[in-house]
């Protein structure tokens, strides 16, 4: 008997019919056999570990991946490091926290993108669709203009969460909160907050303040230190990992609100909890990195092509893939035009746009 989220499908006129149709459609659409998710998870995990070591090695100082590996082993009491104290400092005080911070931000944005696309049933949903980016940007710009840079992470986090609350309030004020109403409310809130941000920049920003605001709006991991990297990793552990356990609920949402309710899912409460958790996670991450687009949008779509639409595989694989993608995007940003450094948001947009178009072409060919 087919089950969703641990519950049996018992309504022959409702979900059984939907499930039968979905099963029939799946059997017609999936003639080719996909590799198991466990195999992809091992590949991505190995790629993530390799990416961390190589990304830490890359830079102006002469450090090889083997040196980084021996230094890591030495930290765990296995052998001795071959690096001088100066290069040890470069590895552990500059590059390692930045690379781990990039991995945490990429993983978190990918998780949020996959969940929002399922909850809102919109393939274009990402962590910024509901105004989160605009809210975080507005909060960050306010404190930069006021000269309170130390409060920037708090202001960005508060702006992201406030924007989500405003979106959900607008979506639910006229009655039951629906998916389409939530998306439209998010677009409206995002437009208003973006306009307010532009107004503040136009009215008050000058010189260094203008450059600082532009750098934050385009995203950067240059200021990541161990405390901020550990904060991002902690957010992944406390919010991201529980979100990975929501796969059963997301499978039910794929059939629509009415069908999800027939499976015993408290639709409104589940939607509020999932969107609220993604907002908290996004707020924690963008408070450290600034606004970085395309990771939450592109990574889940790319993972679906190799592992299928099932969320039990999609969520963990997107987590690993998002970490790898942002590690390399940030590495390109800091090394491509060395000593000049690009905002990482430019790199993700330049890479993400063409990749997303290629994914659209591949999906169209598969669906013929």
How would you portray this structure in words?
- With 368 residues, the chain is mainly α.
- It has one domain (58-361): ABC transporter involved in vitamin B12 uptake, BtuC.
- Helix content is 74%, strand content 1%.
- It has helices at residues 15-29, 37-57, 65-75, 85-119, 132-146, 152-173, 179-204, 207-218, 226-244, 247-253, 257-262, 267-289, 295-307, 311-335, 344-366; strands at 3-4, 7-8.
- It has a two-stranded antiparallel ribbon with strand order 1-2.
- A hairpin with a 2-residue loop joins strand 1 (3-4) and strand 2 (7-8).
- Helix 2 runs antiparallel to helix 4, helix 4 (85-119) runs antiparallel to helix 12 and helix 6 packs across helix 7.
- The chain is globular, with a radius of gyration of 22 Å.
- The relative contact order is 0.15.
- The model is unreliable at 1-31 (pLDDT under 50).
- Residues 1-32 are annotated as: Disordered.
- GO terms for molecular function: transmembrane transporter activity.
- Pfam families: FecCD.
- Keywords: Cell membrane, Membrane, Transmembrane, Transmembrane helix, Transport.
Keywords summarizing the entry:
15 helices, mainly alpha, 1% strand, 74% helix, 368 residues, disordered N terminus, 2 strands
CATH architecture: Orthogonal Bundle
Topology-level CATH name:
ABC transporter involved in vitamin B12 uptake, BtuC
Q: For the largest sheet, list the strands in their spatial order.
A: 1-2
CATH domain class = Mainly Alpha
Q: What is the number of independent domains?
A: 1
CATH superfamily name?
A: ABC transporter involved in vitamin B12 uptake, BtuC
Amount of beta strand: under 5%
The main sheet comes to: 2 strands, antiparallel
| Arithmetic mean pLDDT | 82
Rg, Cα atoms, Å: 22 Å
Q: Tell me how many strands there are.
A: 2
Percent of residues in helices: over 70%
Order of helices and strands: EEHHHHHHHHHHHHHHH
- Our measurement of the CA-to-CA distance between the termini, rounded to an integer number of angstroms, reads 31 Å
Low-confidence stretches: 1-31
Shape: globular
Class by alpha and beta content: mainly alpha
Total number of helical segments? 15
């Amino acid at each position: 008997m087919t089950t969703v989220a641990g519950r049996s499908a018992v309504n022959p006129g409702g979900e059984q019919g939907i499930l039968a149709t979905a099963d029939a459609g799946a059997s017609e659409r999936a003639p080719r056999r996909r590799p198991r998710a466990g195999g992809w998870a091992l590949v991505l995990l190995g790629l993530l570990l390799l990416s961390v070591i190589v990304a830490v090695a890359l830079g102006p100082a002469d450090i090889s991946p083997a040196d980084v590996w021996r230094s890591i082993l030495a930290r765990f009491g296995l052998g001795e490091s071959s690096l001088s104290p100066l290069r040890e400092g470069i590895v552990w005080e500059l590059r390692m926290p930045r690379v781990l911070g990039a991995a945490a931000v990429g993983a978190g944005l990918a998780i949020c993108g996959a969940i929002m696309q399922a909850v809102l049933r919109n393939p274009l949903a990402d962590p910024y669709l509901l105004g989160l980016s605009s809210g975080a940007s507005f909060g960050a710009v306010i404190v930069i203009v006021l000269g309170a840079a130390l409060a920037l992470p708090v202001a960005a986090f508060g702006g992201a969460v406030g924007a989500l609350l405003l979106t959900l309030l607008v979506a639910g004020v006229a009655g039951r909160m629906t998916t389409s109403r939530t998306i439209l409310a998010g677009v409206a809130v995002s437009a208003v907050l973006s306009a307010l941000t532009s107004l503040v920049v136009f009215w008050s920003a000058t010189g260094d303040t203008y450059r600082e605001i532009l750098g934050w709006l385009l995203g950067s991991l240059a200021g990541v230190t161990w405390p901020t990297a550990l904060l991002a990793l902690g957010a992944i552990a406390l919010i991201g990992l529980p979100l990975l356990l929501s796969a059963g609920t997301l499978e039910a949402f794929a059939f629509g609100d009415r069908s999800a309710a027939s499976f015993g899912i408290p639709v409104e409460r589940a939607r509020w909890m999932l969107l609220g958790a993604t907002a908290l996670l996004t707020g924690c991450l963008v408070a450290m990195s600034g606004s970085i687009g395309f990771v939450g949008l592109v990574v889940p779509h790319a993972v679906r092509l190799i592992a299928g639409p099932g969320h039990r595989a999609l969520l963990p694989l997107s987590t690993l893939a998002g970490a790898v993608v942002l590690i390399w995007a940030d590495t390109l940003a800091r090394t491509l035009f060395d000593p000049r450094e690009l905002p990482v948001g430019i790199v993700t947009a330049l890479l993400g746009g063409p990749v997303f178009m290629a994914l659209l072409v591949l999906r169209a060919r598969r669906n013929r």
